[in-house]
Structures
1.
Amino acid sequence: QKEVEQNSGPLSVPEGAIASLNCTYSDRGSQSFFWYRQYSGKSPELIMFIYSNGDKEDGRFTAQLNKASQYVSLLIRDSQPSDSATYLCAVKHFGNEKLTFGTGTRLTIIP
Amino acid sequence: NAGVTQTPKFRILKIGQSMTLQCTQDMNHNYMYWYRQDPGMGLKLIYYSVGAGITDKGEVPNGYNVSRSTTEDFPLRLELAAPSQTSVYFCASSYRDRQEPQHFGDGTRLSIL
């Protein structure tokens, strides 16, 4: 069983719409959750992190965490073509220095 | 502000050759990591270090070695290159805190022919 699961996509969203990216994790001891964006041929860059249940907003991005359901999501409002990338979900476990990454969801914003 | 610097950016090796991928960070981070990413796949942890003189295996350590003699540097060594090691290699670093993200270098694209 994969520890961090993401739908690989591709997920196609019209420009200006809301893109919703989902991630589930198996370890209930997980305590911190990160979303990275990776453009083709580039390195991952941090978009947001969240560690408390609920929503966290930063500009057009909102991260949502539900620890009871072991579910974390990323919403991108007013999607732009520049948002087209692969989005990686990463989970840090309690007392563990390592991140576990999902395989990523490829997002395409259609102009 | 350099952040995490990896060299070289590209390299082609012949089967059986050896090489060292360099990684240095100037953020005074305690933790450093090496990942590999195969096409269309996520990141797999090769080795990591929580401080100078301390290293530990990740998910896919076979065929690799690391050392951490200083806080800044964390080189990755390939001793006998094999085609299965063709990949993109990323070095990352972070502070010791649950909220701290990992910061990535630009990667090294390695081909073994």
Note: Chain B has a mean pLDDT of 93.
2.
Amino acid sequence: EAQVTQNPRYLITVTGKKLTVTCSQNMNHEYMSWYRQDPGLGLRQIYYSMNVEVTDKGDVPEGYKVSRKEKRNFPLILESPSPNQTSLYFCASSPGLTLNTGELFFGEGSRLTVL
Amino acid sequence: GENVEQHPSTLSVQEGDSAVIKCTYSDSASNYFPWYKQELGKGPQLIIDIRSNVGEKKDQRIAVTLNKTAKHFSLHITETQPEDSAVYFCAATDSWGKLQFGAGTQVVVTP
């Protein structure tokens, strides 16, 4: 089954404790991206990647890191989480190299709470 | 960059009635306008999209209209059913091909 898999789905952590949210897709998509969803703000892009070893900042990259060592994986790293990073996170992938050429396929989300 | 505004933020409709969600965008070079539906506990899923060379597109009970002059586009759901209850996001690509989402509309269909 074609899918984007994120882990963990739920996480409660404390300020400053490094964490990684994994994302894997089995559709051989070039493009992958991370979004955060907050009430009243919709989906805001954190980072994206057009291909292996190619990553770029989205609209809200502060406090996050990503890597793309393999085509299928695109982990999101919070080196020193803070309470304002409490949010619902989505990983997405697309067959298109730009987002007006292909559908975005989303994972089921990771709800992160930073105390 | 692109700015997408979406209204209303919540919409309650009686089962069988129609629902309309409206979005405006700022970048006149935008050329692709998808709509995503997010069911409770799930990720958003594409339900319909429209490109700037088309004024209207229909798929069963859902339709999208685009007015390029006014820079707005709308989602129409007819004969609403309980399974239409979800959060709906509009989006637009800017001149760099980057997707910007609206803030979302919570649609509640009451029996």
Note: The mean pLDDT of chain A is 93.
